[in-house]
Amino acid sequence: MNLTEQVRDQIEDKVKKDKFARKQAKFAEAENILANEAIDAGLGQYKKAWDCLPQDWLEHDESVQVRGVRLKMKRRALPGPWRWTDDMPVTDEFMERVRIFFRIKNAFCAHKTETMKNLRNLLRTVRTTKQLLAIWPKGKQYIPTDDKALLPAPLALNLDRMLEQV
Questions:
Q1: Nearest residue to 65 via CA among 48, 28, 90
Q2: Share of the chain above pLDDT 90, in %
Q3: β-bridge mates for residue 128, sequence order
Q4: Closest alpha carbon to 84 in 73, 94, 93, 92
Q5: Partners of 76 in the beta sheet?
Q6: pTM for the whole structure
Q7: How far apart are CA 133 and CA 120, in angstroms?
Q8: Which of 27, 51, 67, 107 is at 20 to 30 A from 135, Cα to Cα?
Q9: Which residues contact 36 (CB under 8 A, 6 or more apart)?
């Protein structure tokens, strides 16, 4: 069976979902926790009132900037003209945790980008799903049930190693 562009896209989507989606969700959750810690530090005397608000009260996505670092978050919004500023009272230890978080997240994103680039290159070098399975047997789980695929052996081994690192 021919390895069409649609089949290639489906394989890429399955790899992303299988190997990267859970970890990306964990990064988003961790970033949200850091942003909430920064806001809790910034709330000061208003923290008690904030904690009394229902969890779903005016919940929305936004970001907070702490010492020049923007953190994405999902948080309950305070009514009125409330803005978070860059002068949040956070500790140096907190900022070190933020730096470590972004170092790990950026390394993961770079690995994901490189892996997906390698996968795209491999998929473009083959024409049939039969060839794909002959060279990259582990790729069978990512092939749509109607189709099968092929990758050159050295590239396939490299891709296997990259996916195992996730």
A1: 90
A2: 25
A3: 2
A4: 73
A5: 59
A6: 0.65
A7: 16
A8: 107
A9: 73, 75
Q: Is 150 helix (H, G, I), strand (E, B) or coil?
A: strand
CB 128 within 8 A of CB 149: yes
Nearest to 79 by CA among 50, 36, 42, 40: 50
Residue whose pair of structure tokens reads 């961790």 in the numeric block:
30
Give the ranges where the chain is alpha helix by DSSP (H): 5-15, 21-43, 47-52, 92-124, 129-135, 153-164
Residue with tokens 């790990």: 104
pLDDT digit string, tens, across residues 58-70: 445 566 666 666 6
**Which tokens sit at 136?**
């990259």
Average pLDDT over residues 119-147: 86
The token duo for 68 is 């020049």
